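In response to the reviewer comment on reproducibility (Comment 2.3), we provide here a single inverse folding case reported in full, input and output, so that an independent group could reproduce the run without further information from us. The structure tokens appear first.
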């Protein structure tokens, strides 16, 4: 297994997200070629894929960097381990990979969010040293 940052999008990557995203969201929605291309064009986003020994995509993690008045921080987003690969340590490997990317940029504040229903994922994050914060997360939908 190996993990690498994606710097070019092709249809095989779109197909991988077509399979992985519903496993995270529960919806049959996934990013298009153009949307994925827009993601990787940003210097502040590291989109990484995990591959098995047959070069099949088995997971993904995204690290987003933002500089604000309180300093630079990183967000770990869209951690997905293919359902057929769970329980083999891939989630841990993806998180450690994301943390190393953030450390390499000198970031000391690293956050992630996870829906409470994702029990195994939440346990993993706490086991790896993430602390649950007392904070509210709000989202505004301008289309409503």
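Designed residues, in position order:
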């Amino acid at each position: 297994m190996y993990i690498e940052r994606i710097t070019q999008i092709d249809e095989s990557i779109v197909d991988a997200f077509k399979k992985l995203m519903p496993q995270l969201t529960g919806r049959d929605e996934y990013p298009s070629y153009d949307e994925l291309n827009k993601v990787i064009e940003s210097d502040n986003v590291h989109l990484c894929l995990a591959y098995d020994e047959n070069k099949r995509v088995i997971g993904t993690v995204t690290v987003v960097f933002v500089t604000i008045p309180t300093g630079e921080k990183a967000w770990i987003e869209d951690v997905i381990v293919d359902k057929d690969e769970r329980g083999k340590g891939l989630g841990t490997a993806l998180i450690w990979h994301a943390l190393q990317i953030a450390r390499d940029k000198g970031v000391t504040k690293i956050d992630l969010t996870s829906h409470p229903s994702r029990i195994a994922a939440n346990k993993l994050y706490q086991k790896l040293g993430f602390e649950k914060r007392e904070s509210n997360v709000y989202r505004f939908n301008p289309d409503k």
